[in-house]
């Protein structure tokens, strides 16, 4: 439990080197705002996006007034390079082009999947709603299971060189009395690897494995349709651009539009809010190479060294409702400051050393997918990855690690079929869907117990009832907790990419 508790929150940020534009096929449809359309199996148009807007091409787009004539008047989908907002361009897109594999979302899951697929010769296009790769969320603790994936993707050593290994974990109560301490090397099943990785560096490294035209920024998917039950998917973007793809992966996070289109329930707020940030110490950080976690009553806090000059920190507190989403870092900082009375001075110092842009807040949520009970996570030619598939609370520090694992398992299943059948016809949907089902079954077996365990740990650690906290601090954590057993889930090894398909540089 100790390790679990300590690693719950860690950090990331990205900037891409391989972000560019794609060719988008344009397909105009008259029913983009309806719930079903002629010839389409099902469509979802997200009403809040259904408003006139200026497209990236410079023209005002009114989605509900688009022409039905397929392929006509291909306006323009622009290109994006690096993290800069794209300039509009004037080329005409090929209206009949059909993408082989589109991934919605350039987070960890989307980028890692695209990188894994690229390594076995499967071309993907990643659509990202933002103007740049995600930089919020500061940092993530990545465990051995994630480092194995990063090595398979060829970016493990680069990231190791940018981060400091964490060697142990210390638990304190809120008054800073030491409750438990242990080093990773004491835990069986090692060597264990643990670093708090900056999100931007992870994203950069993943994006560096992709061709320059693999990521399309400013591309928010607002509508999904299908030409027939087993026909291509038709995606409409918020700028009115439309593109078609044979295979679709929703890697679009906890509020996945692809998941909603597939009928999955929304995530469930678990009654906790997390605030996190990255403190910067240009002259050297004072926290060495150990994670520290402070257990309070209904609230806990912690810190994890990222490098010699950066430290990731977090605070999680109970709150009956998530309240309105707070995105202004100044507001988040003020909220945190108001809670720091009675906490170790470290937390105040960390906050003082944290640039505003490094602070963020998230209402914690999860969803438990139960095969046969909840909506299926695979439908013909479409499935999910990362938080879209298995949203879990961060108490085990495993959401991002599992998103990385998804990428390799997808390449081993779906990737093999796509690599062997490049350009195949509709009949291939059987093989594609079977491969997706194999992937989903493997991931369900792996991630469901983690989501459950993470939820239970969070609930126990966040208990606010003083007598229970007394037992936790004086008996449970110091005497009963055996941290080693909680590293067992980090020993998962998702294996290698299919050797016969790996494209050599
Ligand atoms: C407080 C906290 C602490 C955490 N700590 C850890 C940790 O220590 N270790 C760990 O492994 N995990 C941790 N996690 C979990 C981790 O952050 C997530 O599991 C991980 O980010 C999931 O990656 P993803 O790619 O699935 O989703 P995301 O990172 O959310 O990426 C989804 C992407 O899809 C894009 N998108 C969304 N909708 C659309 C659309 N309609 N069209 C186009 N693009 C779209 C988004 O802009 C985003 O870029 C933590 C989570 C929280 C909340």
Indicate how many domains the architecture comprises.
1
Regarding CATH, which class? Alpha Beta
Helical content stands at 25-40%
CATH topology: FAD/NAD(P)-binding domain
Tell me the major beta sheet: 9 strands, mixed
The CATH architecture can be given as: 3-Layer(bba) Sandwich
| DSSP strand tally | 20
Which hetero compounds are present in the coordinates?
flavin-adenine dinucleotide
Structural class designation: alpha+beta
Strand content: 15-25%
Q: Name the average pLDDT.
A: 81
Tell me the CATH superfamily.
FAD/NAD(P)-binding domain
Shape: globular
Number of helices: 11
Q: Uncertain runs with pLDDT below 50, 5 residues or more?
A: 1-93
Distance N to C terminus: 42 Å
Signal peptide: 1-18
InterPro entries: FAD-bd (IPR002938), FAD/NAD-bd_sf (IPR036188), MOase (IPR044560)
GO molecular function, one term: monooxygenase activity
Family: Belongs to the 3-hydroxybenzoate 6-hydroxylase family.
Please give a structural write-up.
- This protein is of the alpha+beta class.
- The chain has a single domain (2-496), classed as FAD/NAD(P)-binding domain (3-Layer(bba) Sandwich).
- The protein has helices at residues 2-7, 108-119, 144-152, 156-162, 199-207, 257-262, 329-337, 345-352, 399-420, 429-461, 466-480; strands spanning 44-45, 53-54, 60-61, 99-104, 125-127, 139-142, 168-173, 178-183, 195-198, 215-216, 221-226, 233-237, 242-250, 268-280, 290-295, 299-305, 310-318, 360-366, 378-379, 382-384.
- The strands form 4 sheets. Strands 1, 4, 5, 10, 11, 12, 13, 19 and 20 form a 9-stranded mixed beta sheet that branches. A 7-stranded mixed beta sheet has the order 8-7-15-16-17-14-18, with helices on both faces.
- Strand 2 (53-54) and strand 3 (60-61) form a beta hairpin.
- It is globular and about 65 Å long.
- The two termini are 42 Å apart.
- The site of flavin-adenine dinucleotide has 38 residues, from helix 2, strand 6, strand 14 and helix 9.
- Residues 102-423 form the FAD-binding domain.
């Amino acid at each position: 439990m100790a390790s679990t508790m300590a690693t719950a929150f860690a950090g990331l940020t990205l900037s891409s080197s391989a972000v560019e534009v794609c060719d988008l096929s344009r397909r105009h449809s008259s029913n983009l705002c309806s719930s079903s359309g002629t010839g389409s199996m099902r469509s979802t148009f997200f009403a809040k996006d259904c408003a006139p807007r200026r497209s990236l091409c410079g023209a005002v787009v009114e989605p509900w007034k688009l022409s039905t004539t397929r392929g006509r008047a291909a306006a323009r989908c622009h290109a994006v390079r690096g993290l800069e907002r794209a300039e509009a361009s004037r080329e005409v897109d090929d209206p009949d082009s059909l993408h082989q594999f589109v991934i919605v979302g350039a987070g960890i899951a989307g980028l890692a999947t695209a990188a894994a697929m690229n390594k076995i010769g499967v071309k993907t296009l990643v659509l990202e709603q933002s103007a740049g790769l995600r930089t919020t969320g500061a940092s993530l603790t990545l465990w051995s299971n994630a480092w194995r994936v990063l090595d398979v993707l060829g970016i493990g050593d680069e990231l190791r060189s940018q981060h400091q290994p964490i060697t142990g974990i210390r638990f304190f109560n809120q008054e800073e009395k030491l409750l438990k301490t242990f080093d990773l090397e004491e835990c069986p099943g090692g060597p264990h690897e643990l670093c708090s990785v900056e999100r931007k560096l992870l994203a950069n490294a993943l994006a560096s494995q992709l061709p320059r035209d693999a990521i399309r920024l400013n591309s928010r998917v607002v509508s999904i349709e299908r030409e027939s039950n087993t026909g291509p998917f038709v995606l409409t973007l918020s700028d009115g651009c439309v593109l078609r793809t044979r295979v679709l992966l929703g890697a679009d996070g906890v509020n996945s539009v692809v998941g909603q289109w597939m009928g999955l329930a929304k995530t469930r707020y678990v009654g906790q809010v997390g605030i996190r940030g990255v403190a910067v110490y240009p002259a050297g950080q004072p926290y060495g190479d150990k994670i520290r976690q402070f257990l309070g009553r209904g609230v806990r806090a912690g810190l994890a060294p990222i490098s010699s000059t950066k430290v990731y920190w977090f605070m999680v507190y109970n709150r009956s409702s998530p309240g309105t989403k707070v995105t202004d870092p100044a507001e988040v900082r003020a909220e945190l400051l108001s809670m720091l009375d009675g906490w170790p001075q470290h937390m105040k110092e960390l906050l003082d050393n944290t640039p505003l842009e490094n602070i963020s807040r998230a209402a914690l949520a999860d969803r438990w997918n139960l095969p046969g009970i909840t909506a299926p996570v695979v439908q013909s030619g479409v499935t999910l990855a990362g938080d879209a598939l298995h949203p879990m609370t961060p108490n085990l520090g495993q959401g991002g690690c599992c998103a990385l694992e998804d990428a390799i398992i997808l390449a081993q299943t779906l990737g093999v079929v796509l690599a062997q059948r490049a350009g195949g016809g509709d009949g291939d949907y059987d093989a594609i869907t079977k491969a997706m089902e194999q992937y989903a079954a493997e991931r369900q077996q792996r991630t469901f117990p983690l989501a459950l365990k993470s939820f239970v740990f969070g609930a126990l650690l966040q208990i606010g009832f003083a007598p229970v906290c007394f037992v936790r601090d004086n008996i449970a954590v110091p005497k009963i907790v055996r941290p080693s057993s909680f590293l067992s889930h980090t020993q998962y090894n998702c294996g290698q990419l299919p050797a016969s398909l790996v494209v050599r540089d």
